[in-house]
Amino acid sequence: MKLLDYPKRVWYYIQPPATYEMSCDLCGGSNIYWSEWKGHIWCYDCEADTIGDQGFLDGPVPVNVAAMLGISFEKVWI
Q1: Tell me: the pLDDT tens digits for 19-42?
Q2: What is the 3-state secondary structure (H, E, C) of 3-72?
Q3: Percent of the chain having pLDDT more than 90?
Q4: Looking at per-residue confidence, does 6 or 65 come out higher?
Q5: Burial 5-26 (b: 16+ CB within 10 A, else e)
Q6: DSSP secondary structure letter of residue 76
Q7: Which contacts of 65-73 are long-range, i.e. CB under 8 A and separated by 24 or more positions?
Q8: Whole-model pTM?
Q9: Fewer CB atoms inside 10 Å of the end CB: C or N, the chain?
Q10: Is residue 7 part of a domain?
Q11: Among positive and negative, which fits the CA dihedral 54, 30, 68, 78?
Q12: 60-71, pLDDT tens digit by residue?
């Protein structure tokens, strides 16, 4: 499936992906930000859109514990 076949992102979390312990699956770096494509991140080091490693969003997340650590799940709709 080509990247252009994915839908455009309509929202993103207000905190950067590294906050959620996400990283690039190509280089393992954390110099990343939300991609314009749904389900992807942009790696500044690889200069590529990639699915990335999902960090702790890959499993159940204790929301109250995350809030105590300063992690927000608020979204910005674009």
Answers
A1: 999 999 999 999 999 999 998 999
A2: HHHCCECCEEECCCHHHHCCECCCCCCCCEEECCECCCEEECCCCEEECCECHHHHCCCCHHHHHHCCCC
A3: 65
A4: 65
A5: ebeeeeebbeeebebbebbbee
A6: E
A7: 71/15, 71/19, 71/20, 72/13, 72/14, 72/15, 73/13
A8: 0.81
A9: N
A10: no
A11: negative
A12: 888 888 899 899
Q: H/E element holding 75?
A: strand 75-77
Task: Determine, yes or no, domain membership for 4.
Answer: no
Q: Kindly report the length of the chain.
A: 78
Chain centroid to Cα 33, Å, comes to 7
7/56 Cα distance (integer angstroms): 24
Q: What's the domain range around 54?
A: 13-77
* Domains in the chain, number: 1
